[in-house]
Specification:
- The chain contains 11 helices and 3 strands, in the order αβββαααααααααα.
- The protein has a 3-stranded antiparallel β-sheet.
- The two termini are about 25 Å apart.
Length: about 250
């Protein structure tokens, strides 16, 4: 799928497009997803100020050489290229390639889904998931849905593609509802010493804090895991529904 670099870059920059210098981010200061260390490999001695004012031609050159060419983006199918490229930007091209190789098999849109699932699984294993997890999972959901939409556009009519995206949205929404109900059941089945329920599906942020503090019983931990999954599938449902609306007959 030659010539899709700029389309993929535009999507990725929608998430990476600003200045960031969060103390919990191990990558340090970044601009348009480019760390100072990366920019210095391209422009030795670059300062933080220069990074913050990086010209677009440098952005494109760094992303093409450092990520797109490294994952052989021009040889990947539409949608697969986006999922692999965006994963490479977040977690490194080597990991993205390994996720791709483990996901190949079947239609391109299935490859996108499998790759994004592996990517999200890796993210959930990181210690900083509790800080960045909600934003990360939303991004992966949107990349998955966009990648699937691009892949379907190459093999199906607009009507068929829209119907499949709507089906994916409905399935994800159903999973979210099921897991939310399961979370409520698991959480309310386990009580604190005072007899109060430890879990309310509406209190996901509190749940994350309790997990870190080691204050949850087994039932409430199960509830917390289920509500996190419910949130992820709700994000996927929203992303797929949005992609379906983009398609015109």
């Amino acid at each position: 799928m030659n010539g899709n670099f700029r389309n993929c870059l535009a999507v990725t920059l929608g998430y990476e497009g600003g200045w960031s210098d969060h103390p919990s981010d191990p990558g340090g200061a970044t601009m348009k997803g480019i760390t100072l260390a990366t920019y210095r490999r391209y422009k030795p001695g670059a300062t933080r100020t220069q990074l913050r004012n990086i010209p677009m031609k440098d952005v494109e050159a760094i992303y093409r050489a450092g990520y797109w060419d490294t994952i052989n983006g021009d040889r990947l199918a539409a949608g697969v290229d986006l999922a692999t490229f965006d994963a490479g930007v977040n977690s490194g091209p080597a990991r993205a390639r390994s996720w791709l190789m483990a996901s190949i098999g079947g239609p391109d849109h299935e490859t996108v889904r499998k790759l994004c699932a592996r990517r999200l699984g890796f993210m959930r294993s990181l210690a900083i998931w509790n800080t960045f997890g909600r934003g990360w999972s939303r991004r992966v959901a949107e990349i998955e849905a966009r990648g699937v939409a691009w892949a379907l556009a190459r093999s199906k009519s607009p009507v068929q593609a829209r119907e499949q995206l709507e089906t994916e949205a409905a399935a994800a929404s159903s999973r979210s509802r099921t897991q939310t109900v399961g979370a409520g059941t698991a959480g309310t089945a386990t009580t604190a010493g005072s007899g109060d329920a430890l879990f309310n599906p509406q209190h996901a942020d509190q749940i994350a804090g309790w997990m870190l503090g080691g204050l949850l019983t087994v039932g409430a931990v199960v509830a917390a895991i289920l509500i996190i999954r419910a949130i992820i599938h709700r994000q996927r449902a929203s992303a797929y529904a949005a992609e379906a609306k983009r398609i015109t007959s």
